[in-house]
From TrEMBL:
Domain of life: Bacteria
Protein source organism: Streptomyces lutosisoli
Coiled-coil intervals: none
UniProt domain Transposase IS200-like: residue ranges: 14-134
Listed Pfam families: Y1_Tnp
Protein name, entry field: IS200/IS605 family transposase
């Protein structure tokens, strides 16, 4: 997208909306590897596309992930987040059975909580740079 914010149009609106979302692993276990993040990014892009959203940036560390999502006003952030967390938890645990041993009781990868902040005060380039600089685990 570069430095220029693209204005999107809906059936009855014109908009530029972005949300910064952070998920943490259940019990803050440090279980996420580079391979998990790579697959999680693919899952995130697919789920976002189903909601007519776009993942602008994605990164994370061993116990959390950051997403910057361009979304239309018709999308409820809570529904998008719940879908992202549910689908990614299920698919990551299927793809990486090693994750199951950490969550055999809860059967969920992510904490029930999340952070979501609209991006408007800070330039998107600053938020994108922040996410890009997150350390991916080895």
């Amino acid at each position: 997208m570069g430095g220029i914010q693209e204005i999107r149009t809906g059936r009855h609106c014109v908009f530029v909306m972005h949300v910064h979302v952070v998920f943490v692993t259940k019990f803050r276990h440090k279980v996420i590897t580079h391979a998990h993040l790579t697959h999680m990014e693919e899952i995130t892009r697919s789920v976002c596309a189903d909601f007519a959203c776009e993942t602008m940036e994605f990164n994370g560390e061993d116990n959390h992930v950051h997403l910057l999502i361009d979304f239309p006003p018709k999308v409820a952030v809570t529904k998008l987040v719940n879908s992202l967390k549910g689908v990614s938890s299920r698919r990551l645990r299927q793809e990486f059975p090693d994750l199951v041993r950490h969550y055999w009781r809860a059967n969920k990868l992510w904490s029930g909580s999340y952070f979501a902040g609209t991006v408007g005060g800070a330039p998107l380039s600053v938020v994108k740079q922040y996410i890009e600089q997150q350390n991916r685990p080895a």
